[in-house]
Request: fold
Amino acid sequence: MKKSTAAAVALFATLIAAPAVAAPPADQDACNKLSFDLAEKAVAKKPSEAQAVKIDELIGKLEGLCSDSKFAEAETTSKEIEALIGK
Reply:
């Protein structure tokens, strides 16, 4: 019984720690918030100048996608930004 309880606790901990599958932003406001949040996260990580330039380019691209209501593309771009930032 103790092994199954330990296994259940471990599984639960894994599920909590696993990142949720992100869906595309639902609307322009959510998309803009995503862009702003990623920009703040990038600043907090203090990337190198080369990384900062690339992140800035991608944030600009993301903002344009949000303005054009291209939310699926915005999600893809946000994942690129997150990969550069290194969650």
User: Anything to note?
Assistant: The chain has a mean pLDDT of 80.
